[in-house]
Amino acid sequence: MAQQESEAAAPTLGVGMVGYAFMGAAHSQGWRNVSRVFDLPVRPVLAAIAGRDPSAVQAAADRHGWAAAETDWRDLIARDDVQLVDICTPGDSHAEIAIAALAAGKHVLCEKPLANSVTEAAAMAAAAEAAAARGQLAMVGFNYRRVPAVAYARQLIAAGRLGALRHLRFTYLQDWLVDPEFPLTWRLRKEHAGSGALGDLGAHIVDLAQYLAGERLLGVSALAQTFVTERPLLEGASAGLADGGPGDGHRPRGRVTVDDAALFNGRLPSGALASFEATRMAAGRKNALRFEINGELGSLAFDLERLNELSFHDHTEPASSSGFKRILVTEADHPYLAAWWPPGHALGYEHTFTHQARDLVEALATGAPASPSFADGLQVQRVLSAVEQSAAHDAVYTPV
Ligand code: SOE
C-alpha cells in the first residue's frame, strides 16, 4: 500500500486491472464505488488497466475511470503505482499473470475459475502461499459469497439454525447458448475457458455449497453434455457473452470443445448429500443460481434472480403455523447492508463486486487471510476436474 496524502487522508491501494470485457467492467464498478460506500482504512485507486487492443483499452479506461492504459500486462505489473493486480481475463492467462504479479510483490484478485486445470491452479496456490509469507494477499473472485442474502444464509447455518445438514441442492441455469447460431466465443473453446458451463457456472455453485456448509466435497459422480457441437466462427475479437452477433446460418462453423451442461452429485464429510446442475441451455433462465438447503432443524432457499430475498423454514416451530417465510435481506444488521440504503431499498448483481473489493481491502488492512483464497480456488478446481473425469466415464447403469 502506498502511503500517499490524498483528499480522503486514507492511504491508497493502487489497483491495476487486466481485461476490460464483462468482468472487467463489473470489477471496475466495484473498485470505483467501494470507498464511497464503505468507510475503509485504505482507499483503492484505479491506477491502470491493461488490454491488447490500444484503442479498446483506452476506451475502457476512459469509460470506467482508470487513470492509465497499458497494452501489455507485464508493463501493468511493473508499475510502481500498482500494488494489486485484478485479473479479469479468460482462464488460459490466469496462471501466468497471477504468478508473475505475485513474484513482483503485488497482491492479486483473480476471476473464477482460478485456472483451466488443476496443474495451473496448484502452481498459483503455491505462489500465493509463498507470497502470503511476504504479506501479500491472493483472492479468488467468487463474488456470489458477497450477496447479502447468501452471506446471511451462511450466518444462519453457522449459528446452527438448520442443525445437521441433509441436502444441498444447487442449480445455476442460464440460456444464452440455446440459439445454435450463437457464435463460437472463447467461452466455448476448451483451450481458452478450460471447460463450459462446468467451470463458468459450476465453479460458483461448488464454491457456494462448500462455503455455506463449511465443509468440502469428498467426491462426485457426474454427467456432462454438449448439445450443439458446432457453432458459427466469430468475426473479430470476442469480448462479452454475445460479441460477434448471431450467425446467419452461412458462416463457417467450428467445433465446440466444452460442455453445455454438467450434472453432478457429491457427499460431504458430515454425510450430507449435494446435487449440482450447471447449464447455459435452460431456455428462459437468465441467471438462475438457486439453492435449497435442508437440515434437521430447518431449510433455506435462495434464487439469484430475486437476490434480496432468502426463504427460511424453521422446523422447530409448530407444524400448524410453520412454513417457508420470505426474509427481505435489506436490514442494516444484515451483512454489508449498514453502509447502503434504508430497509427495502434493494441491491443488485453489481454490488457483489463492491462487497468483494471491500472484503479484500479489509483483509489487507487487518492482515486477515484472503477468503476465498487461491487454496480454496484450487480445491474447487479439483472438484471440477473430478466432475470431468467422472463424466468422461459416463458410468450410467442401464435398468435391467
Ligand atoms: C457467464 O455465464 C457469466 O458471466 C459467468 O461467467 C459469471 O461468472 C457469472 O457470474 C454470470 O454469468
From TrEMBL:
Q: Does the keyword Oxidoreductase apply?
A: yes
Q: Identify the residues that the record assigns to the GFO/IDH/MocA-like oxidoreductase domain, covering every copy.
A: 151-300
Pfam families, per database record: GFO_IDH_MocA (PF01408), GFO_IDH_MocA_C3 (PF22725)
Superkingdom of origin organism: Bacteria
The protein's matches in InterPro entries, at most eight in alphabetical order, are given as: Gfo/Idh/MocA-like_OxRdtase_N (IPR000683), Gfo/Idh/MocA_oxidrdct_glycsds (IPR050463), GFO_IDH_MocA-like_dom (IPR055170), NAD(P)-bd_dom_sf (IPR036291)
- Which Gene3D superfamilies does this chain map to? Dihydrodipicolinate Reductase, domain 2, NAD(P)-binding Rossmann-like Domain
Question: In this protein, which residues make up the domain named Gfo/Idh/MocA-like oxidoreductase N-terminal?
Answer: 14-133
What's a single GO MF annotation on this record? nucleotide binding
Signal sequence, renumbered to the chain:
none
Q: Does the keyword Oxidoreductase feature in the UniProt annotation? A: yes
UniProt keyword terms in alphabetical order: Oxidoreductase
Query: What is this protein called in UniProt?
Result: Gfo/Idh/MocA family oxidoreductase
